[in-house]
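Homework-ish question, so no full write-ups if that breaks the rules, but can someone show me the predicted structure for this set?
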Amino acid sequence: MPTVDAKPGPFTFDPAATALLVIDMQRDFLKPGGFGESLGNDVSQLRRAIEPTAALLKACRARGLTIIHTREGHRADLSDCPPAKLNRGDPSQRIGAPGPMGRILIRGEYGHDIVDELAPAPGEPVVDKPGKGAFYATELGDLLAERGIASLVVTGVTTEVCVHTTVREANDRGFECLVLADCVGSYFPEFQRVGLEMIAAQGGIFGWVANSEDFTATL
Ligand code: TIU
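A: Not a homework solution, just the prediction itself:
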């Protein structure tokens, strides 16, 4: 079985039982005028993850790996957005408020969709999630079970929020997670570094960390 040079040690996986998970690579997080910027973040910090993720998608598609995308967002009536999430930041720029890419973080709006460079290919599931974790209130668990998936290669944004929450959820559910350092991004360089260290610390308490080129070289 393929083995990737990773931290805290080699990550071995069965490609037939492995899925690539691309988390929330949406305009709302990566482009000016979206949800990420409305929270006061410098969205340019995330752009460096796009190019390596595009290359990774190409390699995984060529190898026939299962690929699943996620999008964070809410119903137009906000019925799935709890006050604890809604009441963040400047009231004029909250979830559901109008922005240059449509209503912020609302399903069906331009800003809610995935950036052009990483557009899902036909047949690749897109999981819409209301929370940070991709398992919470979604069909992700069923999709993975139907496909016999045991290992997840995790990419996307942001490292310390939706990537971390999803990896923690996955780890508790028994999935082995490999996070690709160059394909995840944070608005905060320090959180990027420490977020990745937290995954692989304590003997891999949540999973493994590697670079995308080392992973694709094994495919
Ligand atoms: N704010 C932030 O860093 N992230 C989010 O709100 N969602 C995701 O990480 N997708």
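Now go work out the reasoning yourself. Hint: The longest helix spans residues 189-204.
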